[in-house]
Amino acid sequence: MRIVLLGPPGAGKGTQATRLIEKLGVPQLSTGDMLRAAVAAGTPIGLKAKAIMDAGQLVPDDVVVGIIDQRIDAPDCATGFILDGFPRTVAQAEALRAMLATKGLKLDAVIELVVDENALVDRMRKRVAETIAAGGTVRADDNPESFKTRLETYRAQTAPVSAHYAERGDLKQVDGMRSIDEVTAAIGTALGR
Ligand code: AMP
Asked: Would you say residue 164 has pLDDT above 90?
């Protein structure tokens, strides 16, 4: 299955994607994770992306579209993938459709995690506390200032992606305010699995 997971930062896309990997046996493709790996490795893309990411803004469309275009050609994507954090603009959604069409593929489902925005900052704080408790490294953009920009960026540039898929009749919305298990179950129902 080829799935897109949509939702604002802190909605639980990563958590649910991890569960879907097991259920569906397809990889999670997180452009955020791939960009953070590029930053850590100091690649040209990473060097270009770091300041933009730290500020909570969006990396240019052509960069992320290029990353995904290459990644979905890998053998582990042959039976599908879960896109987490991509597409984030309507232009990326259109590029994704065109890219898949040239490969003779199309999306099977677009799932949006619908959450109360007031809960998101608290979720980010909880994620930071859990990461510190586990001895991990806190994301450079998980601070109140960058998070505020990430939410604004989401509202301005990514919320229209949900509307775009809704207009095409491809969007399935799931209540992301319920427990992790309940959200997983609701996604399963939405996917007919
Ligand atoms: P995430 O891990 O999905 O929250 O992404 C972290 C950051 O990486 C975002 O705030 C953006 O700066 C960048 N990023 C990730 N995915 C995309 C995308 N599809 N388009 C543009 N920027 C992205």
From this structure: yes
Question: Does residue 35 line the site of ligand 1, with CB under 6 A?
Answer: yes
What is the CB neighbour count within 10 angstroms for residue 83?
Answer: 24
Per-chain mean pLDDT for the chain: 96
* Residue 43 is assigned to a structural domain of this protein: no
**Residue 88 Cβ contacting ligand 1 at under 6 Å:** yes
Specify if 55 maps to a domain: no
> Is the pLDDT confidence value at 193 over 90?
no
Question: Among 67, 61, 83, which residue's Cα sits nearest to residue 157?
Answer: 61
Q: Which of 53, 69, 148 to mutate to test the pocket of ligand 1 (most atoms within 8 A of CB)?
A: 53
**Which two tokens mark 12?**
């639980």
